Amino acid sequence: MLASSPEYSEIRLIVVTVEDRIRFSVIDEGPGFSPEALKQAAEQFYMGDSSRRLSGHYSMGLYITKSIVNLHGGKLGITNSTQSGGGQVSIEIPITSLLT
């Protein structure tokens, strides 16, 4: 996601509370996720873009994120932003899991 954002583009971090949960969203201005990546981006070693293999990219970030979010009883959302057209990754975690 963030690796494909144009140079000097904006990357937004939005944090809000939703009932008893806290949501962290990161939104970029890149090309967004392909339909295939929307389904598989959080899988271990998934590389939607073959050029990432050449740059030493191991595609573990979203997989590790999903594992940590699951341990906290949360949810990981991978979408394309309707505002920027870029990728959007959201994490929702129960507030109580952050207090323990």
Strand order of the largest sheet: 1-2-4-3
Q: Helical residue percent?
A: 25-40%
Contiguous helical run count: 4
Q: Which CATH architecture would you pick?
A: 2-Layer Sandwich
Mean pLDDT: 84
Q: How far apart, in Å, are the first and last alpha carbons?
A: 31 Å
CATH class wording: Alpha Beta
Poorly predicted sequence stretches spanning 5 or more consecutive residues: none
Approximate strand percentage = 25-35%
Order of helices and strands: EEHHHEEH
Basic shape: globular
CATH topology: Heat Shock Protein 90
Overall number of structural domains: 1
**Radius of gyration from the alpha-carbon trace, in angstroms:** 14 Å
Number of strands: 4
SS-based class: alpha+beta
Task: Walk me through the structure.
- This protein is α+β, with helices and mostly antiparallel strands and 100 residues long.
- It contains 4 helices and 4 strands.
- It has helices at 35-40, 51-54, 61-71, 95-99; strands at 12-18, 21-27, 75-80, 87-94.
Give the helix/strand layout.
Blueprint: E1 12-18, E2 21-27, H1 35-40, H2 51-54, H3 61-71, E3 75-80, E4 87-94, H4 95-99
Antiparallel strand pairs: 1-2, 2-4, 3-4
Q: Which features does this protein show?
A:
four-stranded antiparallel sheet, alpha+beta, 26% helix, 100 residues, Heat Shock Protein 90
Outline:
This protein is of the alpha+beta class and 100 residues long. It is built from four helices and four strands. The chain has one domain (2-99): Heat Shock Protein 90, CATH 3.30.565.
